[in-house]
Specification:
The protein has 314 residues and is of the alpha/beta class. It has two domains: 5-201 and 289-307, Aldolase class I (TIM Barrel); 219-277, no CATH class. It has 13 helices and eleven strands.
Length: 314
């Protein structure tokens, strides 16, 4: 059994975080991962306070174990959802798309354990000084909004730069990835793409099928021109978006095209107009499983790899 310091930090049995995927990471998936011993995460995405409050309460009906809330700091409702996690006594908040220092002034005194997602050493140091209990170092192999550095290069540099525990994310979908992350100095992993096909994931059937059919070159990144890089599956929508970028379309035109595209994929299953965000690990996801089996596969696979790690040492 693999147990690391992050387990004690957030009160879980197994060092696996489920990614906070917008329109996907809800009470159903989060509770299933938490019940499996990992850290399930609800995505606050761009939803308002009452939607998030409902999801938190629904999750508590499904699990008595710790779970977290992912807060996107660019959400128009960020201030009100930041207060909801205090009011509802959420134990862990994972942040993305910005610097959470403003909200940490209320979260930390409330006993909330804040774990920001970072794509650089500078941001990792900044949030550590503000009171983060850990960081998620996320490489550009991940789905959704991505930075420039790969997981292989980002994680060890963040580990060397901060004293808080580091969780690795980006391109991790099996035990080999978990083992590699631990060898890079991380004490846990955050996984998103593989959980898309969990039985308890309520994403559209079309989304699940597209992940299962993906291969090693199934994803692409759009938005680099305007510092809004997003990794998603190659679809009519993403190819159309990339074409407009190359032709010099304005930010307004691109924003209009992208408006609601993730919901069209995740909720409606609209292949033509939806943005099917997924990591480069999509080609490694080959079967549907309960969330508990995914968590166990990740860690049992890592144990097997780590036990044989010395075979080349003489």
């Amino acid at each position: 059994m693999i147990r690391t310091p992050i387990c004690d930090v957030v009160g879980i049995e197994k060092p696996v975080f489920q990614g906070g995927m917008a329109w996907i990471a809800d009470a159903s998936l989060a509770s299933a991962v938490s019940n499996a011993g990992g850290l399930g995460v609800i995505s606050a995405m761009n939803a308002d306070a009452e939607w998030l409050r409902g999801q938190i309460r629904a999750c508590r009906e499904l699990t008595d174990r710790p779970f977290g809330v992912n807060i996107m700091l660019q959400s128009p409702f960020v201030d009100e959802v930041a207060q909801v996690v205090v009011d509802e006594h959420v134990s862990v908040v994972i942040t993305g798309a910005g610097t959470p220092n403003k909200h940490m002034k209320s979260w930390v005194p409330a006993g909330i354990k804040v774990i920001p997602v970072v794509a650089s050493v500078a941001l990792a140091r900044l949030v550590e000084r503000a009171g983060a209990v850990a960081v998620v170092a996320e490489g550009g192999e991940s789905g959704g909004h991505v930075g420039d550095l790969t997981t292989m290069t980002l994680v060890p540099q963040v580990v060397d730069a901060v004293d808080v525990p580091v969780v690795a994310a980006g391109g991790i979908a099996d035990g080999r990835g978990v083992a590699a992350a631990l060898m890079l100095g991380a004490v846990g992993v955050q996984v998103g793409t593989r959980f898309l096909v969990a039985d308890e994931c309520t994403v559209s059937e079309e989304y699940k099928e597209r992940i299962l059919k993906a291969n090693d070159i199934a994803t692409m990144v759009t938005g680099r021109r305007d510092d809004g890089a997003v990794r998603c599956l190659k679809t009519p929508f993403s190819r159309r978006y990339a074409k407009l970028e190359r032709e010099g379309a304005s930010k307004e035109e691109l924003a209009e095209l992208g408006r609601g595209s993730l919901r069209k994929a995740a909720v409606d299953g609209n292949y033509e107009e939806g943005s099917f965000m997924a990591g480069q690990s999509a080609g490694m996801v080959t079967r549907r499983q309960p969330a508990a089996d995914i968590v166990d596969d990740l860690l049992e696979g890592a144990e097997e790899v780590l036990r044989g790690a010395t075979r080349w040492v003489r």
